[in-house]
Each structure stands twice: as structure tokens, then as C-alpha cells.
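Run folding on both entries below.
>entry_1
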Amino acid sequence: MLVDLGFKQENPTIIYNDNNAAILLSENPVKHDRAKHIDIIYHHIRDEIKQGVIDLVYVPSADNLANALTKSLPPSSHDRLTAKLGMTRRDT
């Protein structure tokens, strides 16, 4: 999309992922029996990785910032992750 808007991408877009299986599937072009249900349009990510447009990087679930916005977490984990996002909890 950036190229369509006139931007030149010099470095790959980094996507942080806490799912090792998804990273392995994206990097390995071998057909996996357990992944045959994946629609062909999703193989686009694999092509983007090969071309160097996207780079998938593993991040442990405990450090995945997106979890603060998408999962129910214990208060200590939620507070730690939202602080890393620059968000603070307002005490009432």
C-alpha cells in the first residue's frame, strides 16, 4: 500500500507475533497437512516475506503489547503492558 501511495519502503515492516507455528508456516514453503485449510489469499504474506517487505519477529506472549488491548489480563500484566504503550491508569 505504501508503494501505491508513492512511498519507497527501504526496510521491511516488522510484525511482532507470539505464535511460533504461524511464523514457521510463513517461512517454510512446504505444504503442511495441518494447514491445508488456509485459503490461498493468505499465502500472500509468505510472498511478502520472501520479497523482504515483511519480517515476522517472535515476541513472547507476556511481552506482546497487543495483549493489553485484546485479552483479559491480571491487573499487574495489564498495567505493565499499557505503561509500555504510554497509557496510564486513572484512579477514580
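>entry_2
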Amino acid sequence: MTKLPLELKHDIIFEAVFELRFEPNIPNGAVFGVIYPIIMEKFPNLSHIPLPILDLPDAVRNSDPQFKYQPLNRLQGEGLSIGIGPRVICFSVLKPYVGWHKWKPIILDILNKLSDKNVIKYIEKTGLRYLNFIDKDVFPLINVEVKVINSTIKTSATTIRTEINEGEYIKALQLANNASMNENGQIKQGSLIDIDITRMKNIQNNDFKFNLETILEKSHSIAKQFFFDILRDNFLEMLEPVYGDNTNG
């Protein structure tokens, strides 16, 4: 295996998200009340933002599958956003990415404490997602080629999505060269490299706590390897990789 960089001097991560979907062990309405003090003890300066979905009646939210795993509240600040719903918790960091060595301990600490509170009956899904954004057409820069009727697609508006199984994990890749991103109120046009690593196997709460760090590290390792495998050498050099002994990811 080719040695991977520790980091990139010109990081293109726009947002990173870790999502945990679970079956609660307590009433839906009590989940936020248990999670809130756990997070605020660690990050007392986060702002509480109730989300618009809260305006929907409970009966609608509970019966419609599209709302089942939606966060109802968000705690935000200090470069971190945590979405909380009756069956989901999402950890999100925006640009500039703080690095895996700083982000992973936050996720571990909060989820271990949540597991101790016996809020979770079992885990349904974990997902680690990286949204990378550049202001260029991505297709000439990556090891991906799309052909239609034996002709390579060369257009200003191309979006593709694929999934690849890797053991218990699924690697999902979405590419688009007609994407837009809102950065500090400014809309920027460019390309998206969206990598999402999911694990769909159910895990009981106690087993999950025991295996949590392994799942996080495996998800991150797959995502990182997948990302660098996609890049062509000239694109990687443009991003100025930094090599060494310890991974910040």
C-alpha cells in the first residue's frame, strides 16, 4: 500500500460529518434531555438551535420515514455542530477541518457517555462522510472516467454516484463538477468529491461501546485511502501533501 500523506497544506474538506442512527431505549421525547447536558458539560458555549422540523406534529414525524432520522435540535459553535434527534446524533465540522486527531476524541467522549446513560438500545448505522470542494472541474484531476457509447464524457455539467462494498462497510462516492457551496455567505461554483463510509450492521449498546473506536478508525482509514486513491498524482502535488509518522487525518 502506498504511504498516505499526514495532511494536505491545501486541504479541500468543506465539511466532515459522523452520523449515528440508533433505536432508543427511552421514550423519543426524552432523548434530547439526556444528550443535551452531556454535550453542554464538554462544550458549555454551544448555542441551542431548534430546527424547523420541530413544528411538525409528533404523529407526522413518527409516521413519515423521511423524518425518522432527522435531527430536531442543533447545538452549534466553536467550529462544531451536533444535530440531535430521537434516533440520530450527527457530529459536523466545517472548513477549516480540525483534523481527525482532534475530531475523533470529541465523538468518542460524547458517545461513550451517551452509551453509559443507556439511551441507546442498539445501533442501526454509522456513517463517516467527507465533502471536498474545489473551484475547478474535478474530472481531469481524478482517476475516474465516465463513458457513454464509448465516448468519454467531457461536459460542464456531470454528476455521478457509485457504491463499493468493502467487508461490513459501504464506500459511496459522488462526484459533481457543477456544484455550489456557501462559504461565509458567498456562493462558490466548482466540483464536489463526496465520500461516505457507512456500516449498516446492528450492534447492541454494550458491544457498540466496546467496538466504537475500532469502527471510527476503520471508517476513517477507508475514507482516507479511498480519497487518495482517487486523486491523480498531479492533483495531489497541487494540494502539497505532508508526510510523516503520525496521522492527523
